[in-house]
Structures are given as C-alpha cells and as structure tokens.
Amino acid sequence: QVQLVESGGGLVQPGGSLRLSCAVSGRTASSYPMYWFRQAPGKEREFVARISSSVNYADSVKGRFTISRDNAKNTVYLQMSSLKPEDTAIYYCYSVDVPWGQGTQVTVSS
Predict the structure, then answer these.
(1) What is the four-CA torsion angle of 27, 50, 79, 10, rounded to 10 degrees?
(2) Which of 25, 87, 93, 100 has the greatest number of CB atoms lying within 10 Å of its CB?
(3) For residues 35 and 47, is the Cβ–Cβ distance under 8 A?
(4) What are the tens digits of pLDDT across the range 67-93?
C-alpha cells in the first residue's frame, strides 16, 4: 500500500522559512511525478509545486519555494522561504493514484 506522510509544518513569522517533508512508502518516489498542494481555510485545494524530470511552481510561490527529492530516503521536500501570511494552509504531498494524506499545517503569523 502506497502511503505519503507529510511533516515539518508549524508556526512561523512572516519572512521566515520552513522545510516540509513527504516520506513515501510503497512506491519509488523518483519513478513518479510528485506534487505539493495546499488548502487554505475556506478555499479550494491548489497546486504548489511539481517535480519529475523538471520542476514547476505556482506563480504565487515561484522564487520563494523549492521542491526537491532525496532518492536515497525516498522523500520529497518543499523548502519555503520568505513566507507570507497568505501561505497559511494545510500542505499536502500528492502522487497519482495515492490517497491524500493528513497534510501538515503551516501558519504564517506575527
């Protein structure tokens, strides 16, 4: 059974940084495109970043967020910098045909 477990969220001040992790089990992460999505209160879930042979980002995070992958650890990361209050959301890792996980809460507030 393929499972994605997100971690690394927390409370951070505006301008701060966080690194999210997505531990992948039951599948080799490097063999599939991997995504990060987020869902803010009262809003639809939205695309944040994608990694396969290349990387793609939502315009709202481009230049501030970096998606990466550690093949040895079968883990995908999202390094977030210059965080803004509007980045506050639950962040989810995603891979095709895999159930959504619990996500990890990121709160950007002073």
Answers:
(1) -80
(2) 93
(3) yes
(4) 999 999 999 999 999 999 999 999 999
